[in-house]
Amino acid sequence: MEYTVKQIADLVGAKVIGDEQILISGINSLDEASPEEISFFADRRYAESLKKTKASAILVSAATDLYKGTQVLVTNPALAYARIAALFSSPAPTHSGISQRAAIHKSAVIGKGVSIFPLVYVGEKVVIGDNVILFPGVFVGDRVRIGNHTVIYPNVTIMQDCLIGNEVIIHAGSVIGSDGFGFVRDEGVNVKIPQIGMVQIDDRVEIGANNCIDRAALGKTWIKSGVKTDNLVQIAHNVVIGEDTVIVAQTGIAGSAAVGRQVVIGGQVGISDHVKIADRVMIGSRSGVPKSLSAGEVVSGTPAMPHRLWLKTRGLITRLPDLVEKLRSLEKKVEELEKRPK
What we know:
By secondary structure, the protein is an alpha/beta fold. Among the domains are: 3-88, Udp-n-acetylmuramoylalanyl-d-glutamate--2,6- Diaminopimelate Ligase, Chain: A, domain 1; 156-303, UDP N-Acetylglucosamine Acyltransferase, domain 1 (3 Solenoid), CATH 2.160.10. The chain has 5 helices and 39 strands. The chain has a 10-stranded parallel β-sheet, with no helix packed on it. Strands 9-12-15-18-23-26-29-32-35 form a 9-stranded parallel β-sheet, with no helix packed on it. It is flat and about 100 Å long. 33% of the residues are buried.
């Protein structure tokens, strides 16, 4: 597929400086782009790459003398890149219809245009919407409902009674609806609390590879619309994740925590059970969150604290040995002064 620079600019509401009729067949990094491709420049650290790039056009926020070719002026080059890349991305591969090597219960209801690869299992009373793709190794438990245009990649497990919305993407190896980690101690013995709730994933959610989203003990674990999770994320029972929140890799969210809308959670964050994270909070990577956070807070560290305070404390850590030595020296001098006769 080829597009003129003008067609691309119109897609993102941009102004063109240079030849609008150049044909573009792809998008690539500054270093790797060929003369048939467009690239983007959003970081001054890549100024040398911009000077040397072979791209026929670039996305920039302001005209630059570092590049002599056609420039597409956009407010946000990274956002424009995302939208333009969608023009050139390949759709998920499909199987022609429903494979004879898939195991599908006779009570399941399958929509139009569905692609089901070999070695898929679909249980009793499952409802699958239109244009859904189920890759090999997918397990869909009894009474699961899957919305339209959803893509479920290989070896995903969706346990019984879960609800999956429209235009959801679940990447390989994720488990939706496994038992929540609930036990009661009885004189040193762990007694399992039956996990009889479910998981609800709303529209336009994307779940990364090897996520584990546990079913609720009662009620539901709820991932609301537009949420995006990276790989290796753990979401425990009865957690609620608000709309358009982003969760980066290796984060763990303990049971019954509530995360608001448009929250950004960095990698390797740990959030304690029953904590409430309000809307638009930002949590830095490797933070530990033991208590609730108010709307718009920006925090880092363990335990989490205001980000600027964390930066100050981090700056002091490497100086602590010297400060301790100075403190000991001062204590010794004070002790000597106190011993002198008055």
